[in-house]
Amino acid sequence: MFETNLLFGIPIYKTKIDPSLYDKEKIVSIIKKNYSLGPRNKLDQRNTNVHMSFADESNSKFESIDYTKLKKVYDNVFNDFVKNLKLNYEGTINCVYDILNYTASNKDGYMNFHNHLPDDDFSCVHYLQLDKHQLGTKFKNTHNFSNYFKFIRPNMYKSMNNADKINSYAYGDYTLTVEEDDMIIFPSIAEHGINKLDKLSDKLRITIATNLRLI
User: Fold this and answer.
1) Between residues 16 and 45, which one has the greater pLDDT?
2) How many C-alpha atoms does 125 have within 13 Å on its Cβ side?
3) How far apart are CA 98 and CA 53, in angstroms?
4) Cβ(117)–Cβ(165) under 8 Å?
5) What are the extents of the domains in the chain?
6) Helix H segments across 84-153?
7) Selection from 106, 113, 16, 32 nearest residue 65 by Cα
8) How far apart, in whole angstroms, are the C-alpha atoms of residue 50 and residue 42?
9) What pLDDT, on the 0 to 100 scale, is given for residue 135?
10) Is-cis flag, bond preceding 118, omega within 30?
11) Do 141 and 8 form a contact (C-beta atoms < 8 A)?
């Protein structure tokens, strides 16, 4: 069952991943251990204080993660996802995916806006661990009017509920509300990033990023 949210005309699909269906505690434990060993980041130009495994899986300093059980869960989720798409396509649609990396962050960790073009159709974020003070993924409004709407129509802008996603069109960015074990899937064209947090949490913000392609 998927909940569909339209942000700036871009669909954001959200579902829940049952943690009992895979070895969640083991994966989280390894990521925590790796995080404790120090920085792990190959994308310094886009990230600050975000420990991530992207392009560094062969680094012997960090313990590798076996995603076998999790992939079996993803297989079912992504097959159901494809069936929910509004596609004008005759024949069989296959969805292939790659688990891109895990990320772990805490206070001061953030990720600048980016997309996953040109190689993929959809991107996916699975919130493996998240406390109530930590935020979901931030999406950028790429419509030009988002830069000046508040100046042209200030009264309207001030009266709008900025927590309601139906009003997301009026703001420069919008952060979707998510909980631990949620997964969101969105078109790879969507500019997205991670908000910086000023408060230190007892829990690491841990996510797993995946890219999907339809063939």
Assistant:
1) 16
2) 29
3) 13
4) no
5) 3-214
6) 149-152
7) 32
8) 10
9) 84
10) yes
11) yes
Looking at the chain, the number of H-run helices and the number of E-run strands are 4, 10
Alpha-carbon distances of 131 from 57, 110, 215, rounded to whole Å: 27, 16, 36
Q: Is 204 exposed, middle or buried (0-12, 13-18, 19+ CB in 10 A)?
A: buried
Give pTM, 2 decimals: 0.91
How is residue 7 written in tokens? Answer: 């942000």
Confidence at residue 6, expressed as pLDDT on a 0 to 100 scale: 63
pLDDT score recorded for residue 46: 61
43 contacts: CB under 8 Å, gap ≥ 6: 52, 54, 55
Structure tokens at 14: 């959200």
Q: In this structure, what DSSP letter does residue 115 have?
A: -
pLDDT band at 88 (very low <50, low <70, confident <90, very high): confident
Any idea which fold 3-214 has? Jelly Rolls (2.60.120)
Measured CA distances, 89 to 82, 83, 86, 92 (Å): 12, 11, 9, 8
Token pair of 149 as six digits: 């709407």
